[in-house]
Sequence to fold (228 residues):
Amino acid sequence: MNRTSRGDVTLIGHRGCAGQYPENTVAAVERAAPHVDAVEIDVRRCATGELVVFHDAELDRLTDASGPVADADRDELRGLTVHDSGEPIPGLDEALAAAPDDLLVNVELKEPGAASDALDAARRAETDVLFSSFHPEALATLRERDPTTDRALLVADEGVERAVEAATDLGCAAVHPPIDIATESGFVKTAHDAGLTVNAWTAADREDVERLLAAGVDGVVSDRWDLF
Ligand code: G3P
Ligand code: MG
Fold:
């Protein structure tokens, strides 16, 4: 399996292909990179102000520690590993530095206040970044700072018209719906008619991939790269 055999569909490795590698780690970015067009990583702020790559608000599911990431110092987080992988929780700078030049990184902003620093990190790393967020404020901040940033609105269950309108109002290039919304009749066409790219999340198996390809999405956010 290589990138060209997927045709025009963009494969985005969810949390760095968390079905295959320790999620949201440098190792995941490095190991997924040869097989995908992009990796998606989640970003939030820790207690000492740095942006770290970690999905959950709490440490409990993925580490031996507990409590909010927002209450943990960067040094404390450096001492933790994701499950028993031995892989530490990376800073955003470290994760971006691990991305090869030809890899797009989809940075999901888990907090509205992370947008500006994430943009600075992307510029420092000179990484090609697609920013996404469920928080419209995060995308608005990016647009204000730099209208040329690539932005995607993550949507849940607001219905196609509202999702497309919101993404358009924010000047987004893309909308990121969950599978059940992306495969609803008319979603992809409505988004395409509005000039939006549709990247759907999160494919866990081949059946998910088949459904999304049949619906005509542009990109699939997947936990594994070997489903195609
Ligand atoms: O970006 C798609 C997906 O990552 C959104 O859900 O909870 O896995 O961050 P979540
Ligand atoms: Mg995410």
Summary: The first helix runs from residue 26 to 32.
